[in-house]
Input
Amino acid sequence: MLNLGLNSAVAQQGERKVRIARIEIYPAYLDEYKAALAEHAKTAVKVEPGVLALQAVYDKANPTKVTVFEVYANEAAYQAHLQTVHFLKYKSGTLKMVKSLELVEVAPIAMEIKPALIENKD
Output
């Protein structure tokens, strides 16, 4: 019985869509972009059940280089995300701020996070 549960968890993990977005921002828009991205990520995780994680960081040595780690329940959840009002607002509102964008499809090896680190901010 334990194997069935484990196999099910592995199957679910295999359905997840995981990717990294590497973004370079024009320096003049950096603060505005970071605020827009933070708002978008918070909203997406809060209101979309299929958005499992959106984590964004910037390079301290080169702050215009932003990396976003994205985890969706599956391809359908990702496609639904692309149609949401908050994503379209983020995308259209930041278009002029983005110098370059590279989307990299990745496969998980280990994705661990302590539950205590997950905050419930409303």
